[in-house]
Specification:
The complex is a heterotetramer, with two copies of chain A and two copies of chain B. By secondary structure, chain A is of the alpha/beta class. Chain A is built from four helices and 16 strands. Classes of the chains: A alpha/beta, B alpha/beta. At the A-C interface, loops of A face loops of C. The complex binds flavin-adenine dinucleotide (2 copies), flavin mononucleotide (2 copies) and FE2/S2 (inorganic) cluster (2 copies).
C-alpha cells in the first residue's frame, strides 16, 4: 500500500462514546482519507494553549466519500489530552493532521500473520487485521491486557472473535491465557514448530517492554517482526526531530523519527 | 466598493520579502515537508533547520516535553550537514519557488565560517542566519551569544567570509538584550532575529529524573510570547538594523503585536506543530486585518505603537 | 498498617518552618485576607506584599493582563507602608499564629535600610525578604538586582542594619543566575528567593496601545515554571545558603519539582488567584505524596534529583 | 445587608442554557450563599491553564439550603473565558469564590429607586430589584441595549415586565425608548421635576460610558448614584491590587480595588 500525503483538516465529531476503558470517536472529515494500517493522526480538539501539542492516535478506521467521509479512533484516557478528548461531544470541532508516518508493510508471499496488540495497541493492529481479512490472508490476533475489563469489546475485532483466531491474554488470568501476550506467543510458536516458524510474520503494537520481549525471542527464530513504537511527539510529521529512537542500520545508523520513518520499524533495526 | 489588496512587502536589509511571515528554524524541517500542506513560496521566507559542517546525530531521546502553553526541546541540532543541504535540498527549495534562508551553527568559530562559506556558493540563498544562541548543545553558540564581546567576535568572523546578508539570532538568556543587539549591529550584522528559546527544565517528581536527556532544554511557544515581545521592543529601540521578531506567535494578532513594536518581519515556530498551516493562515490574517482596518501598507503600521506621553 | 505522618519541617537558615510551603509576596495581600478561606498558621510562612517606607499609590490602572498560562502585572508596589504594617497588620498576623516574613523594597538603598530597621522592631517577624528585582517600578530594586555588584552592595547595606534573617529575592532577568546568587551569599544573605517575575509586554494590535499603563510588566504563573525551575537548580548548585524556589507552582507536583532540584522551601504566587486554597492544598498534597511513596522526611527527598552519569 | 465572608467552593452545573445572547447558568453548591446585590463570584470551569484566571460574574440569584443550595449567573459570551463557560454541560464541575466585593447599599428612608442596567449589566441590578420588590419599595427599572434582541427576556425581570415600571431603551429604536438609557433617565427626570428629584436614588451597572453619562447629569441634580464598575481581575478578593480605579475621597484619595472596596462605588467618588 502506498503512503499518501498528509493533510490538515478540520473535522466534526459524529460520536465519541466510552466502552469500558476505551473511547471510540468518529469524526466527519471533508474528504476520504486513505491510510495504511499503523499510520496515525495528530489530534487536537480543545480550546486554549494548555495542553499545547496535538496527540498522536492511530487511525482505527476510515471510510465514506467526499462530503460523507469519516475517520475513527480508539483511545484510552491516560492524561490531560485524552481526558479532554473524552469530554468532547457530537458536533464539537476537532483538528486532525493525517495520515502520518510509515505503517505496517505486507510483503507479498504465502505466510501467516500474527497480529499482537498490548493495551490500547490493538488500535493499530485491528486495521491491519481488517486489511488481511479483506485479502483473505491467514492471520491470528493476540490481545494482551492487565485484566479482563481492559480488553477491547469482542465486536470491535475485525472478523469477530473467531475461536482459534483470537487469543486473549491477561496478566491476572481473568480471561484467556494467564500471562503476558509475549508468553502466549512463545507458547503458540512452540505448538507450531512442525510447520516451521519462518512462515510467520509478527506485527505488534503495545508497551515498549512487550515489544522488546517479542523481538527478543522471535528474532533469533528468524521470524520477521514489525513493531509500532511510541514517543512524545510535537509535530508528528517529521519537522521537529523530537520523537526519535536509535536505529541500527549499518552505515545509516542513527536517530530516526518515530513519526516519519516510523512508527512501524523492523524489529531488527531497533536498538532495544 | 472593492478593497485594495494591502501591500505586505517588507525589507530586511536588502532582502525584499513578499510578506513579513517566515518559518522559524528547527520547526519547519527543510521546508519541503510542508509542501503537502501548501505552496511554501507563499511565505516571506523559509528558514531551514540549523545546519552544521558535518551531519549531526543530536541528543538521545527524551528530547521534548510539553509545559503549560509551551514546550521544552533539547533536539541537539540533529541535521543532515551543509553538504547534503546544498546538494539535495537547496535545488528543491528553488524548484518550489521559495525564498529560503539557512540557519547555521558550529562548535567553533572556524566551523561557523566553513558552513557560511559553503552556503555562499548558493546564488539563490536569500540570507544566512547565525544561530548564536542554541541552548541545547555546548557548541550551539550560546557561549558566543551570551555576552556582547563573544557575539561581536563571532559576527565579525562570519561577516568576513560571506557576501550574503547576515542575520544574527540572539539568545534571550541575557540581562540586556539591547546591548547584545547593538554588538551584533556594530559587528556587521544586516539584521538580528530574536528570540531563540529560553533555557528551562522539567523533572518528574516520582522517578526523580529530568524529563529531557539533556536535563535542560529550550522553552518555546505561547508561554514565552510576552517575554519575546518585550525583548523585540527593546531591540528595536537599541539598533537601526531590522529586527526579526519571534517567540510564541500563533495567530495573526500575535504577529501584529511584534510588527507594531517595530519588527521588520516575524518568524513562526512552535505553532507549526499544532497547525501545519499556521504560517500561511497568519499571512492571510494579517492581510484581512489590514483590509478591515484600512491600512494600505505594512510600513504604515509597523512600529506605530502608541505610547502615552509621560 | 498505620501510616506515619511524614516530617515536612525544613530549615531556611536558622528559621525553622513546619512545612516548605509559603505564600509569595504580592499575591497574598497581608495574609489576613486569606483567613476566611483557611487557617494561615498552617503555612510554612506567609510573605506579605512588598513594603516601602511610605505608603505607595502604585501604577495607574491597566495593571494586569492575562497571557497564555500566565499573567503580566505592573502593580507598581501599591502598599500601606511599613508603619501601618507594623502597627495594624503585624499584631493580627501574630494573633493568627502565622509565621510571617516581610518583603521590602526602596527607591534608594537608604530606604531599604530604613524599612529593614523599622521591621527589626517586630520580635515575631521571622525574616526580611529584600525585593531586589521588581521590574515594575524604576525604584523597585531591579537596578540593584541585575548585576552581581549592585546586588552585593544592597545586600551588605541591609545586612548591616538588621539582625533578622535576610532573604534576598533575585531577578530572573539576568544572564547568569548562579553569579547573582553567589553575590547575595557573599554579601551576607541567609537565603535567596527566586524567581521574581520575568519582564514581558503585551500590546493591542487594534488600538495600537500597550495593555499595561506601565508598558512592560512582570510575567508569572505556570508559563514561567520551566524557566524558574532551571534557575533554582542553577542557584542550588551555585550557593551553599538555602534557596527558596518560586515561579508557576500550582500543584503539589510542581512544588515537588522545586524541592527535588534542591530548594529548601517554595513559594506559591499566582496560583492563589485561581484557587485561594492553593497553598494549603499543596501542603496536603506533598504530605500525601510522601505517604504514598514512603518518604519519611522532606530531607530524604530534597535535592535528590537523579542524573545519568555522563 | 451585611457583607459575608467569601468561600471557595466546588460546584456542579445544574443547567447552562442560552436565551438569545445571554446564558443563564445554575450551579449546585455545598451550602447556601447569602449575598448582597452587586456582589459577584470568581468563576473558573475549564481544565488547563489557558485561560489562567477566573472570570468575575455577578451573583444573579442564590437559594436553597445546605445539600440543595444553588447559585445562578447570567452572562454574555464576549471572549475566551465566557465561550468556555458556554460550552459546559449539566454535571460539569465548576469552581467559585464567592460572595465577593462590596455590593449596593440600601440606606433606609423613603425614596424611589431607579435601577439601570446597560447590556449584561442587568445581571447585578435585577438582584437589587428583587430585594426591593421583597421590601415593597418603590422602584423602576431602565434597561439599555443596542437592539431589541440584546435585551434580557421579560420573564427574567423581577416582578415581571410591569408596564410603567420597566423602561426599555435601544440604540436603534427596535424596542422602547429610541436612544441611550442615560437619555431615557434624563427624560424621566424632566417629567418628574414636580415631586423633586432628590428623593430618587440610582443604582447602575453597565458600560463605563453609560455610567459616566448618568453620573454627569444626575450628580449635579443631587441624585445619589451608585455605580458598579468593571475591570480585569486576577484574584477578585483583594490580594493582587490589579483591579484598581482612582477614587477621590479627600485625604483618602487613591487607587481602590474594584473587587474589594467596589465593585459598587458612590458615583461622586469615582474619578471619571
Ligand atoms: C503513533 C502513535 C499512535 C498512537 N495511537 C494511539 C491510539 O490509537 N489510542 C490511544 O489511546 N493511544 C495512542 N497512542 C498513545 C497516545 O498518543 C498517548 O496516550 C497520548 O498522547 C497521551 O496524552 P495525554 O495528554 O492524555 O497524556 P499526558 O498527560 O501527556 O501523559 C500521561 C501519561 O502518558 C504518558 N504518555 C504520554 N504520551 C505518550 C506516548 N506518546 N506514548 C507513551 N506514553 C505516553 C506520559 O508519559 C504520562 O505518563 C499513540 C501514540 C503514538 C506515538
Ligand atoms: C464585578 C464584575 C461583575 C461582572 N458580572 C458579569 C455578569 O454577571 N455577566 C457577564 O456577562 N459579565 C459580567 N462581567 C464581565 C465579565 O467578567 C467579562 O465579560 C468576562 O470576564 C470576559 O471574559 P472572556 O474571557 O470571555 O473575555 P476576554 O477574552 O478576557 O476579553 C474579551 C473582551 O472583553 C473585554 N473584557 C474582559 N474582561 C472584562 C471586564 N472584566 N470588564 C470589561 N471588559 C472586559 C476585553 O477587554 C476584551 O475586549 C462582570 C465583571 C465584573 C468586574
Ligand atoms: C524543536 C525546535 C527546534 C529548534 N531548532 C532551532 C535551530 O536549529 N536553530 C535555531 O536558530 N533555532 C531553533 N529553534 C528555535 C526557534 O527557531 C524559535 O526561535 C523558538 O522556538 C521561539 O519561537 P516559537 O515560540 O514560535 O517556537 C528550535 C525550536 C524548536 C521548538
Ligand atoms: C500581582 C503580583 C504582585 C507581586 N508583587 C510582588 C512584591 O510586592 N514583591 C515581590 O518580591 N514579588 C512580587 N511579585 C512576584 C511574586 O512574588 C513571584 O515572585 C512571581 O509572581 C512568580 O511566582 P508565581 O508564578 O507563583 O506567581 C508579585 C507577583 C504578582 C503576580
Ligand atoms: S514528532 Fe516532530 S519529528 Fe516526529
Ligand atoms: S482583582 Fe485582585 S485585588 Fe482586585
Amino acid at each position: 500500500m502506498p503512503h499518501g500525503n498528509p493533510r490538515f483538516v478540520h473535522g466534526k465529531i459524529l460520536h465519541n462514546t466510552g466502552s469500558g476503558i476505551f473511547y471510540r470517536m468518529e469524526v466527519a472529515v471533508p474528504e476520504r482519507i486513505d491510510f495504511v494500517p499503523g499510520q496515525f493522526a495528530m489530534v487536537s480538539g480543545w480550546p486554549g494553549n494548555d495542553p499545547l501539542l496535538p496527540r498522536p492516535l492511530a487511525i482505527f478506521r476510515s471510510g465514506g466519500v467526499r462530503g460523507k467521509a469519516a475517520v475513527e479512533f480508539v483511545y484510552k484516557v491516560v492524561g490531560r489530552g485524552t481526558a479532554l478528548l473524552s469530554g468532547l461531544h457530537a458536533g464539537d470541532p476537532i483538528a486532525l493532521t493525517l495520515p502520518l508516518g510509515h505503517g505496517f508493510e505486507f510483503p507479498a508471499g504465502d505466510r501467516s500473520w500474527w497480529l499482537v496488540g498490548g493495551g490500547v495497541g490493538f488500535s493499530s493492529v485491528f486495521p491491519a487485521a481488517a486489511a488481511l481479512e479483506e485479502e483473505r490472508a491467514d492471520f491470528e490476533i493476540f490481545l494482551g491486557a492487565r485484566t479482563r475489563d481492559q480488553l477491547p469489546p469482542g465486536e470491535w475485532i475485525p472478523g469477530g472473535a473467531v475461536a482459534g483466531r483470537v487469543h486473549l491474554c491477561t496478566d491476572d488470568g481473568t480471561a484467556g491465557f494467564f500471562g503476558t501476550v509475549a508468553a502466549a506467543l512463545r507458547d503458540r510458536i512452540d505448538r507450531r514448530k512442525s510447520s516451521g516458524p519462518s512462515r510467520v510474520a509478527i506485527l505488534a503494537c503495545g508497551p515498549h517492554e512487550m515489544l522488546k520481549a517479542i523481538a527478543e525471542f522471535a528474532l533469533p527464530l528468524d521470524i520477521r517482526v514489525q513493531v509500532s513504537l511510541e514517543s512524545s511527539m510535537a509535530c508528528g510529521f517529521g519537522v521537529c526531530w523530537g520523537c526519535v529512537t536509535a536505529i541500527r542500520d549499518g552505515e545509516k545508523s542513527g536517530y530516526r523519527r518515530i513519526c516519519k520513518e516510523g512508527p512501524v520499524f523492523d524489529a531488527r533495526e531497533v536498538v532495544w | 466598493m472593492q478593497s485594495v489588496t494591502p501591500d505586505l512587502t517588507t525589507r530586511v536589509g536588502n532582502v525584499l520579502l513578499k510578506n513579513p511571515v517566515m518559518s522559524a528554524s528547527g520547526t519547519f524541517g527543510y521546508g519541503l515537508e510542508f509542501m503537502p500542506f501548501y505552496d511554501i513560496s507563499r511565505l516571506g521566507a523559509v528558514i531551514v533547520k540549523g545546519l552544521s559542517l558535518l551531519p549531526t546525530p543530536g541528543n538521545p531521546p527524551g528530547r521534548i516535553v510539553e509545559t503549560p502553553a509551551g514546550m521544552l526541546n533539547a533536539i541537539g541540532l540533529q541535521n543532515i550537514g551543509v553538504e547534503r543541504f546544498v546538494n539535495d535540498v537547496a535545488p528543491r527549495l528553488e524548484d518550489a519557488g521559495a525564498v529560503y534562508v539557512a540557519n547555521i551553527y558550529g562548535r567553533t568559530i572556524e566551523e561557523y565560517e566553513a558552513v557560511a562559506r559553503r552556503l555562499s556558493d548558493l546564488p539563490a540563498l536569500a540570507a544566512i542566519e547565525v544561530n548564536a544562541s542554541c541552548p541545547n548543545v555546548k557548541e550551539g553558540g550560546i557561549a558566543f551569544g551570551s555576552s556582547p564581546e563573544g557575539l561581536s567576535g563571532l559576527t565579525r568572523r562570519v561577516r568576513a567570509v560571506t557576501g550574503k546578508p547576515l542575520w544574527v539570532k540572539l539568545s534571550p538568556n541575557v540581562s540586556d538584550i539591547g546591548a547584545i543587539a547593538r554588538a551584533a549591529e556594530e559587528a556587521g550584522a544586516d539584521a538580528v532575529t530574536l528570540i531563540n528559546t529560553i533555557v528551562g527544565m522539567a523533572v518528574d517528581p516520582r522517578t526523580r529524573r529530568p524529563m529531557l536527556s539533556n536535563v535542560t532544554g529550550g522553552l518555546s511557544g505561547p508561554a514565552v510570547k510576552p517575554v519575546a515581545l518585550r525583548m523585540v521592543w527593546e531591540a528595536c529601540k537599541a539598533v537601526k538594523i531590522p529586527v526579526i521578531g519571534i517567540g510564541g506567535i500563533q495567530s495573526p494578532g500575535d504577529a501584529l503585536e511584534f510588527l507594531l513594536v517595530g519588527a521588520a518581519a516575524v518568524q513562526v515556530g512552535t505553532a507549526n506543530f499544532r497547525n501545519p498551516n499556521a504560517c500561511v493562515e497568519i499571512v492571510d490574517g494579517i492581510r484581512d486585518f489590514f483590509v478591515r482596518e484600512k491600512i494600505f501598507r505594512l510600513d504604515d503600521y509597523r512600529g506605530k505603537l502608541l505610547l502615552r506621553e509621560k
